[in-house]
Amino acid sequence: METIKWGIIGVGAVTEKKSGPAFYKIENSALIAVMRRDEEKAKDFAKRHLVEKYYTDADQLINDPDISAVYVATPPQSHKEYAIKVLRAGKPVYVEKPMAMDYAECKDIIDVANEVNQKLFVAHYRRALPYFLKVKELLDNNAIGKLLTADVRFYRPASASDKDKEKQTWRLKRDIAGEGYFFDLAPHTLDILDLLLGEIEEAKAYCKNLGGFYEVADTLSAIWQFKSGITGVGEWCFVAPEQSREDSITITGTNGVIRFSTFAFTPICLSTDKGNEYFEPEQPEHIQQPLIQTIVNELRGVGSCPSTGVSAARTARVMDMIVGKL
Q1: pLDDT of 295
Q2: Domain containing 31: what range?
Q3: What domain count does the chain have?
Q4: Which of 65, 113, 244, 299 ranks highest by number of CB atoms within 10 Å?
Protein backbone atom coordinates (compact mmCIF):
# COMPACT_ATOMS: atom_id res chain seq x y z
CA MET A 1 0.00 0.00 0.00
CA GLU A 2 2.02 2.96 -1.28
CA THR A 3 -0.40 5.85 -0.79
CA ILE A 4 -3.05 5.86 1.95
CA LYS A 5 -6.24 7.26 0.45
CA TRP A 6 -8.40 8.82 3.15
CA GLY A 7 -12.06 9.64 3.54
CA ILE A 8 -13.39 11.82 6.37
CA ILE A 9 -16.80 11.39 7.97
CA GLY A 10 -17.84 14.70 9.55
CA VAL A 11 -15.97 17.72 8.22
CA GLY A 12 -16.66 20.17 11.04
CA ALA A 13 -14.42 22.65 12.85
CA VAL A 14 -11.80 20.12 13.98
CA THR A 15 -11.02 19.16 10.38
CA GLU A 16 -10.41 22.70 9.10
CA LYS A 17 -6.91 23.11 10.52
CA LYS A 18 -6.21 20.68 13.34
CA SER A 19 -6.49 17.52 11.29
CA GLY A 20 -7.92 17.82 7.77
CA PRO A 21 -4.96 19.35 5.89
CA ALA A 22 -2.55 16.81 7.38
CA PHE A 23 -4.14 14.02 5.34
CA TYR A 24 -3.11 15.64 2.06
CA LYS A 25 0.12 17.30 3.20
CA ILE A 26 1.79 14.13 4.49
CA GLU A 27 3.86 12.21 1.97
CA ASN A 28 2.22 8.97 0.78
CA SER A 29 -1.17 10.19 2.03
CA ALA A 30 -4.13 11.65 0.10
CA LEU A 31 -7.55 12.97 1.08
CA ILE A 32 -9.91 11.93 -1.69
CA ALA A 33 -13.41 12.16 -0.16
CA VAL A 34 -15.32 13.87 2.66
CA MET A 35 -18.81 13.45 4.06
CA ARG A 36 -21.21 15.79 5.84
CA ARG A 37 -24.99 15.59 5.97
CA ASP A 38 -25.27 19.24 4.91
CA GLU A 39 -24.48 19.04 1.19
CA GLU A 40 -23.51 22.69 0.79
CA LYS A 41 -21.03 22.48 3.67
CA ALA A 42 -19.61 19.19 2.39
CA LYS A 43 -19.20 20.69 -1.09
CA ASP A 44 -17.64 23.85 0.32
CA PHE A 45 -15.07 21.90 2.36
CA ALA A 46 -14.18 19.75 -0.63
CA LYS A 47 -13.76 22.79 -2.86
CA ARG A 48 -11.57 24.72 -0.42
CA HIS A 49 -9.37 21.72 0.37
CA LEU A 50 -9.21 20.47 -3.23
CA VAL A 51 -10.87 17.16 -2.34
CA GLU A 52 -12.07 15.15 -5.32
CA LYS A 53 -15.35 13.77 -3.92
CA TYR A 54 -17.93 14.65 -1.30
CA TYR A 55 -20.88 12.71 0.13
CA THR A 56 -23.88 13.35 2.35
CA ASP A 57 -24.19 9.67 3.28
CA ALA A 58 -21.54 8.00 5.45
CA ASP A 59 -22.20 4.53 4.06
CA GLN A 60 -21.39 5.72 0.55
CA LEU A 61 -18.04 7.09 1.69
CA ILE A 62 -17.22 3.99 3.73
CA ASN A 63 -17.94 1.72 0.76
CA ASP A 64 -16.14 3.86 -1.82
CA PRO A 65 -13.63 1.40 -3.34
CA ASP A 66 -11.07 4.20 -3.85
CA ILE A 67 -10.85 4.86 -0.09
CA SER A 68 -8.35 2.79 1.87
CA ALA A 69 -8.80 4.34 5.37
CA VAL A 70 -11.43 6.47 7.13
CA TYR A 71 -11.24 9.23 9.75
CA VAL A 72 -14.39 9.53 11.91
CA ALA A 73 -14.67 13.15 13.10
CA THR A 74 -18.31 13.28 14.20
CA PRO A 75 -19.64 13.90 17.75
CA PRO A 76 -19.00 10.97 20.13
CA GLN A 77 -22.51 9.48 20.02
CA SER A 78 -21.87 8.14 16.50
CA HIS A 79 -18.23 7.03 16.89
CA LYS A 80 -19.07 3.42 17.70
CA GLU A 81 -21.53 3.03 14.81
CA TYR A 82 -19.26 4.54 12.18
CA ALA A 83 -16.05 2.93 13.46
CA ILE A 84 -17.60 -0.52 13.36
CA LYS A 85 -19.01 0.06 9.87
CA VAL A 86 -15.56 1.08 8.63
CA LEU A 87 -13.90 -1.92 10.23
CA ARG A 88 -16.45 -4.34 8.84
CA ALA A 89 -15.91 -2.78 5.41
CA GLY A 90 -12.34 -4.03 5.71
CA LYS A 91 -10.70 -0.65 6.25
CA PRO A 92 -8.57 0.87 9.04
CA VAL A 93 -10.28 3.58 11.07
CA TYR A 94 -9.00 6.68 12.87
CA VAL A 95 -11.55 7.87 15.45
CA GLU A 96 -11.76 11.29 17.08
CA LYS A 97 -11.49 11.46 20.84
CA PRO A 98 -13.17 10.56 23.07
CA MET A 99 -13.13 7.19 21.33
CA ALA A 100 -16.76 6.51 22.25
CA MET A 101 -19.44 7.41 24.78
CA ASP A 102 -18.03 5.09 27.45
CA TYR A 103 -15.63 2.24 28.17
CA ALA A 104 -18.17 -0.42 27.18
CA GLU A 105 -18.54 1.09 23.69
CA CYS A 106 -14.75 1.27 23.35
CA LYS A 107 -14.50 -2.44 24.11
CA ASP A 108 -17.18 -3.18 21.49
CA ILE A 109 -15.15 -1.36 18.82
CA ILE A 110 -11.93 -3.13 19.87
CA ASP A 111 -13.69 -6.50 19.71
CA VAL A 112 -14.76 -5.86 16.11
CA ALA A 113 -11.27 -4.64 15.14
CA ASN A 114 -9.82 -7.87 16.53
CA GLU A 115 -12.52 -9.97 14.86
CA VAL A 116 -11.88 -8.53 11.40
CA ASN A 117 -8.14 -8.04 11.96
CA GLN A 118 -8.17 -4.33 11.13
CA LYS A 119 -6.25 -1.35 12.49
CA LEU A 120 -7.92 0.97 15.00
CA PHE A 121 -6.40 4.36 15.89
CA VAL A 122 -7.71 7.18 18.11
CA ALA A 123 -7.02 10.93 17.94
CA HIS A 124 -5.07 11.30 21.17
CA TYR A 125 -2.63 13.28 19.09
CA ARG A 126 -0.67 14.73 21.99
CA ARG A 127 1.15 11.40 22.16
CA ALA A 128 3.11 12.44 19.07
CA LEU A 129 3.70 16.13 19.82
CA PRO A 130 7.27 17.29 20.54
CA TYR A 131 6.04 19.15 23.64
CA PHE A 132 4.85 16.03 25.46
CA LEU A 133 7.64 13.86 24.08
CA LYS A 134 10.07 16.28 25.74
CA VAL A 135 8.33 15.71 29.08
CA LYS A 136 8.57 11.96 28.49
CA GLU A 137 12.26 12.28 27.69
CA LEU A 138 12.88 14.12 30.97
CA LEU A 139 11.00 11.48 32.94
CA ASP A 140 12.70 8.62 31.11
CA ASN A 141 16.08 10.21 31.88
CA ASN A 142 15.24 10.26 35.60
CA ALA A 143 15.38 14.09 35.70
CA ILE A 144 13.32 14.29 38.91
CA GLY A 145 14.17 10.95 40.49
CA LYS A 146 11.61 8.43 41.65
CA LEU A 147 8.12 9.58 40.69
CA LEU A 148 5.69 10.28 43.53
CA THR A 149 2.62 12.28 42.44
CA ALA A 150 0.83 13.60 39.36
CA ASP A 151 -1.59 16.48 39.89
CA VAL A 152 -3.89 18.22 37.40
CA ARG A 153 -5.74 21.54 37.59
CA PHE A 154 -7.94 22.89 34.82
CA TYR A 155 -10.05 25.95 35.65
CA ARG A 156 -11.77 28.24 33.19
CA PRO A 157 -14.83 30.55 33.16
CA ALA A 158 -18.18 29.73 31.60
CA SER A 159 -18.65 31.36 28.19
CA ALA A 160 -21.62 33.51 27.21
CA SER A 161 -23.03 30.63 25.13
CA ASP A 162 -22.66 28.25 28.09
CA LYS A 163 -25.12 30.45 29.96
CA ASP A 164 -27.66 30.55 27.10
CA LYS A 165 -29.51 27.25 26.73
CA GLU A 166 -30.46 28.04 23.14
CA LYS A 167 -26.84 28.64 22.10
CA GLN A 168 -25.11 25.88 24.04
CA THR A 169 -22.71 23.62 22.14
CA TRP A 170 -23.54 19.96 21.49
CA ARG A 171 -20.62 19.20 23.80
CA LEU A 172 -22.92 19.96 26.73
CA LYS A 173 -25.58 17.45 25.65
CA ARG A 174 -25.17 14.21 27.61
CA ASP A 175 -26.79 12.05 24.94
CA ILE A 176 -24.44 13.39 22.24
CA ALA A 177 -21.14 13.91 24.03
CA GLY A 178 -21.23 12.36 27.48
CA GLU A 179 -20.37 14.41 30.55
CA GLY A 180 -19.90 17.78 28.88
CA TYR A 181 -16.62 19.65 28.77
CA PHE A 182 -15.02 17.04 31.02
CA PHE A 183 -15.54 14.36 28.36
CA ASP A 184 -14.39 16.78 25.65
CA LEU A 185 -11.19 18.06 27.29
CA ALA A 186 -10.07 15.75 30.09
CA PRO A 187 -9.32 12.77 27.77
CA HIS A 188 -6.33 14.70 26.43
CA THR A 189 -4.88 15.10 29.92
CA LEU A 190 -5.65 11.60 31.16
CA ASP A 191 -4.26 10.04 28.00
CA ILE A 192 -1.01 11.98 28.36
CA LEU A 193 -0.69 10.80 31.96
CA ASP A 194 -1.13 7.26 30.64
CA LEU A 195 1.66 7.84 28.11
CA LEU A 196 4.02 9.41 30.66
CA LEU A 197 3.30 7.39 33.78
CA GLY A 198 1.49 4.23 32.75
CA GLU A 199 -2.01 3.02 33.49
CA ILE A 200 -4.22 4.56 36.17
CA GLU A 201 -5.45 1.61 38.21
CA GLU A 202 -8.12 3.31 40.29
CA ALA A 203 -9.89 6.68 40.35
CA LYS A 204 -12.66 8.17 42.43
CA ALA A 205 -14.28 11.59 42.29
CA TYR A 206 -16.95 14.05 43.23
CA CYS A 207 -18.81 15.36 40.16
CA LYS A 208 -21.12 18.34 40.60
CA ASN A 209 -23.06 20.88 38.63
CA LEU A 210 -22.53 24.05 40.67
CA GLY A 211 -23.03 26.73 38.00
CA GLY A 212 -26.50 25.58 37.00
CA PHE A 213 -26.12 26.51 33.34
CA TYR A 214 -26.56 23.00 31.92
CA GLU A 215 -27.27 19.41 33.00
CA VAL A 216 -23.81 17.84 32.98
CA ALA A 217 -21.11 18.24 35.63
CA ASP A 218 -19.16 21.50 35.57
CA THR A 219 -16.93 20.86 38.61
CA LEU A 220 -15.05 17.61 39.25
CA SER A 221 -12.50 16.65 41.90
CA ALA A 222 -10.75 13.30 41.51
CA ILE A 223 -8.07 11.21 43.19
CA TRP A 224 -6.19 8.42 41.45
CA GLN A 225 -3.52 5.79 41.77
CA PHE A 226 -1.37 4.43 38.96
CA LYS A 227 -0.38 0.78 38.72
CA SER A 228 3.16 1.92 39.54
CA GLY A 229 1.98 3.30 42.89
CA ILE A 230 2.12 6.98 41.88
CA THR A 231 -0.84 8.89 43.30
CA GLY A 232 -2.42 12.19 42.42
CA VAL A 233 -5.41 14.48 42.23
CA GLY A 234 -7.27 16.15 39.39
CA GLU A 235 -9.57 19.16 39.50
CA TRP A 236 -11.66 20.53 36.65
CA CYS A 237 -13.97 23.53 36.90
CA PHE A 238 -15.67 25.02 33.87
CA VAL A 239 -17.52 27.80 35.73
CA ALA A 240 -14.56 29.34 37.60
CA PRO A 241 -13.80 33.08 37.74
CA GLU A 242 -11.27 34.45 35.27
CA GLN A 243 -8.85 35.11 38.13
CA SER A 244 -8.56 31.38 38.79
CA ARG A 245 -7.96 30.32 35.17
CA GLU A 246 -5.38 27.52 35.13
CA ASP A 247 -4.16 24.68 32.93
CA SER A 248 -1.44 22.74 34.71
CA ILE A 249 0.04 19.29 35.20
CA THR A 250 2.58 18.85 37.99
CA ILE A 251 4.65 15.69 38.30
CA THR A 252 6.66 15.47 41.52
CA GLY A 253 9.61 13.18 42.09
CA THR A 254 12.12 12.64 44.88
CA ASN A 255 14.59 15.03 43.21
CA GLY A 256 12.40 17.69 41.63
CA VAL A 257 9.25 18.73 39.82
CA ILE A 258 8.14 19.01 36.18
CA ARG A 259 5.36 21.47 35.38
CA PHE A 260 3.60 21.76 32.02
CA SER A 261 0.09 22.16 30.56
CA THR A 262 -2.36 20.25 28.41
CA PHE A 263 -3.71 22.99 26.14
CA ALA A 264 -1.76 26.21 26.76
CA PHE A 265 1.65 24.75 25.89
CA THR A 266 3.28 26.86 28.56
CA PRO A 267 7.07 26.41 28.76
CA ILE A 268 7.92 23.05 30.34
CA CYS A 269 9.57 23.79 33.68
CA LEU A 270 12.07 21.36 35.20
CA SER A 271 12.71 22.41 38.79
CA THR A 272 15.52 20.74 40.78
CA ASP A 273 18.09 21.76 43.37
CA LYS A 274 20.10 23.15 40.44
CA GLY A 275 17.34 25.69 39.72
CA ASN A 276 14.73 25.96 36.99
CA GLU A 277 15.21 24.94 33.36
CA TYR A 278 12.65 25.71 30.66
CA PHE A 279 11.86 23.99 27.36
CA GLU A 280 9.63 25.26 24.54
CA PRO A 281 9.36 22.67 21.73
CA GLU A 282 7.95 24.03 18.48
CA GLN A 283 4.31 23.24 17.72
CA PRO A 284 3.22 21.98 14.27
CA GLU A 285 0.87 24.05 12.12
CA HIS A 286 -1.65 21.20 12.07
CA ILE A 287 -1.67 19.78 15.58
CA GLN A 288 -2.75 16.27 14.59
CA GLN A 289 -0.21 15.93 11.78
CA PRO A 290 2.56 14.19 13.78
CA LEU A 291 0.15 11.49 14.96
CA ILE A 292 -1.45 11.10 11.53
CA GLN A 293 2.06 10.67 10.14
CA THR A 294 2.58 7.72 12.51
CA ILE A 295 -0.72 6.19 11.31
CA VAL A 296 0.28 6.51 7.67
CA ASN A 297 3.68 5.01 8.53
CA GLU A 298 2.08 2.03 10.28
CA LEU A 299 -0.39 1.41 7.47
CA ARG A 300 2.54 1.43 5.04
CA GLY A 301 4.50 -0.98 7.23
CA VAL A 302 7.30 1.44 8.14
CA GLY A 303 6.44 2.45 11.70
CA SER A 304 3.84 2.32 14.46
CA CYS A 305 1.23 4.65 15.94
CA PRO A 306 1.32 5.29 19.71
CA SER A 307 -2.45 5.90 20.01
CA THR A 308 -4.55 2.77 19.55
CA GLY A 309 -8.00 1.61 20.53
CA VAL A 310 -6.45 -0.23 23.48
CA SER A 311 -4.65 2.85 24.85
CA ALA A 312 -7.73 5.04 24.29
CA ALA A 313 -9.95 2.52 26.07
CA ARG A 314 -7.77 2.84 29.17
CA THR A 315 -8.52 6.56 29.21
CA ALA A 316 -12.23 5.87 28.71
CA ARG A 317 -12.13 3.50 31.69
CA VAL A 318 -10.62 6.22 33.91
CA MET A 319 -13.25 8.71 32.72
CA ASP A 320 -16.01 6.26 33.62
CA MET A 321 -14.49 5.71 37.06
CA ILE A 322 -14.37 9.47 37.65
CA VAL A 323 -18.02 10.04 36.68
CA GLY A 324 -19.18 6.98 38.60
CA LYS A 325 -20.05 4.65 35.69
CA LEU A 326 -17.54 2.05 36.91
Answers
A1: 98
A2: 4-125+287-307
A3: 2
A4: 113
